[in-house]
Design goal:
Distance between the termini: 8 Å
Shape: elongated
Low-confidence stretches: none
Structural class: alpha+beta
Mean pLDDT: 94
Number of strands: 5
Number of helices: 2
Length: 132
């Protein structure tokens, strides 16, 4: 049996989102120092959550979108939200099965110190467990 918390939700979502958003979008967990040259970028980070102590994980995941304009960042964040709430729900990767997905905090403009780009982020709760 797989350990509780054995799904690397960041790694699974990065690959899953990259496939759906295409090669024009960078999807990663950590930001690069050269972020301005890698727009648009989607950052995926686990930020908490809980589990059932047996098999089911319920991580909270922040997904931030970085783009050159506010409108483009908002549009891409909406696309990500639609994917997470409708396509990810009930899907499976090689390593994980995804169940219920919920919005904890809907996409909103978040501050960022570099005024040459814009950041829009949301937080989701994603129910998942390892593939049996």
């Amino acid at each position: 049996m797989a350990d509780v918390g054995s799904v690397d939700v960041e790694l699974e979502l990065i690959g899953w989102l990259q496939t759906r958003l295409g090669s024009d979008v960078v999807v990663r967990d950590e930001l690069d120092n050269n972020l301005l040259n890698e727009l648009p970028t989607v950052q995926v980070q686990a930020v908490g959550g809980d589990d059932d102590g047996f098999r089911l994980d319920r991580p909270f995941v922040d997904i931030d979108v970085y783009h050159s304009t506010r409108a483009e960042a908002i549009d891409l964040a909406k696309t990500v939200r639609t994917l997470v709430l409708t396509v990810l729900r009930g899907s499976q990767t090689t390593n994980a099965v995804f169940g219920r997905t919920e919005t904890i905090s809907r996409p909103v403009v978040r501050p960022y110190e570099n005024t040459s780009l814009r950041r829009v982020g949301a937080t989701y709760e994603i129910y998942c467990h390892p593939v049996s």
